[in-house]
Structures are given as structure tokens and as C-alpha cells.
Amino acid sequence: MSLEARVECHAGHRGEETPRRFSFGGRVIEVVEVIDAWLAPDHRYFKLRGDDGASYILRNQAGCWELTMYDRAR
């Protein structure tokens, strides 16, 4: 699964962009927790928990964001 996502970020104290809010398919999700973040050779990844209780993985390459994983809350 890979969907284009719109992501609003905040630059932290080191200037790294961190997602704060994102949208896809007409839904807007507020980020309540950044669970993990890592850098792959060609993408930067963020595992997030949304205000809906679900977990998401977003990836970024050169300003293009994609939702690559969604695990809804039970």
C-alpha cells in the first residue's frame, strides 16, 4: 500500500522536519506521538500514532510524502 499524503511539519531544534499533521483520502490526522524515525538510503521514514489511535508509517523523499502503512486502533 502506498498513498500520496499531504503533510504539515515542524522543524525541531536541529532543523529536521517532523510531521505534525497529515491528510489522505479526505481525512486529516493529528500526530500525537512520533514512535520512531529512521533514514533509509533513499527515503526518510516516520512511524506515528494519530489522534484516532491508529499507527501510520509515512515516508518522504525530496518533499514527496507517501503513506506506506496504516494499522487502525482496535
What is this entry, summarized?
With 74 residues, this protein is mainly beta.
Walk me through the structure.
- By secondary structure, this protein is mainly β.
- The chain has one domain.
- Helix content is 0%, strand content 69%.
- The protein contains no helices and seven strands.
- It has strands at residues 3-4, 6-11, 17-24, 27-39, 44-50, 55-61, 64-71.
- The model has no long low-confidence stretch (mean pLDDT 90).
Task: Compute the number of helices.
Answer: 0
Which radius of gyration do the C-alpha atoms yield? 11 Å
Approximate shape: globular
Instruction: Please outline the major beta sheet.
Output: 7 strands, antiparallel
What amount of the residues lies in strands?
over 45%
SS elements, strand count = 7
Number of domains: 1
Report how far apart the termini are.
20 Å
Helix residue percentage? under 10%
Succession of helices and strands = EEEEEEE
Task: Report the structural category.
Answer: mainly beta
Biggest sheet strand line-up: 1-7-6-5-4-3-2
Query: Spans with pLDDT under 50 lasting ≥5 residues?
Result: none
Query: What oligomeric arrangement do these chains adopt?
Result: single chain
- What's the pLDDT, averaged over the residues? 90
Explain the layout of strands and helices.
Layout: E1 3-4, E2 6-11, E3 17-24, E4 27-39, E5 44-50, E6 55-61, E7 64-71
Antiparallel strand pairs: 1-7, 2-3, 3-4, 4-5, 5-6, 6-7
